[in-house]
Design a protein that fits this description.
Helix content: 10-25%
Number of strands: 6
Largest sheet: 6 strands, mixed
Shape: globular
Order of helices and strands: EHEHEEEEHH
Low-confidence stretches: none
């Protein structure tokens, strides 16, 4: 899961009540579908800092809730307002993410050096999704070899 650290850094999540935050504001259908259809409570999360001087994995987290409607889609004053979304059939969801532990930053360039991560969705050229799946093999490689 990618976040711009000036909007929500891993340190921000560590400081949040219960070390949790809502992963909100997702307005891409593919990323929404990952959150809504594939994430399960307790799933591991690589918390990735993006759009910053040194992008990379900044911490380990876990999915801490089932998907629930993103309230911003109904708030006319929100930048995430969606006039086509209906309360009885919301388009956009959040999940809560809980910080597990901060790690030394694993920079993007370090991730790209490893053949075992060559197919990782996050590392594909042009990928702009804030949420992408990680295979079990990729997770294991990062946890066992890069931490």
């Amino acid at each position: 899961m990618k976040s711009e650290p000036d909007e929500c850094s891993f340190d921000d999540v560590l400081k949040a009540p219960g070390r949790k935050t809502a992963w909100s504001g997702v307005r891409n259908y593919q990323a929404r579908n990952y959150m809504r259809d594939e994430m399960e409570v307790g799933d591991g999360v690589l918390f990735y800092h993006s759009s910053c001087p040194e992008p990379g994995i900044a911490g380990l987290a876990e999915v801490a809730s089932k998907p629930y409607p993103d309230a911003a889609q109904f708030d006319r004053k929100s930048e995430y307002y969606d006039p086509k979304s209906k309360k009885d059939d919301p388009r956009w969801v959040n999940v809560d993410v809980k910080a597990v532990r901060k790690i030394p930053l694993i920079p993007l360039e370090e991730l790209r050096k490893h053949k075992a991560l060559a197919q990782m969705v996050t590392l594909r050229p042009g990928n702009r999704l804030s949420i992408t799946p990680v295979t079990a093999a990729e997770w294991k490689f990062i946890i066992e070899r890069l931490l």
